[in-house]
Amino acid sequence: MRREKKIEQLRRVQKVDAPPYLLTRVRAKIRSEAIAEHLPHSWWWAGAAAFVLLLLLNATVFFAPRQTPAADLVEQYGLHQTQQVYADEN
Amino acid sequence: MPRFEDIFEQHQNSVFNLCLHYLQNAEDAEEAAQDIFVKIHARLSTFAGKSSLKTWVYRITVNHCLDILRARKRQKRLAFLTGLFGLPLETALDIPHFDHPGVLLEDREALESLFRMINTLPENQRTAIILRYLDDLPPPEVAEVMGVSLKAVEALLQRGKQKLEEKLSTSEGN
Question: Does residue B92 contact residue B79 with C-beta atoms inside 8 Å?
Answer without folding.
Answer: yes
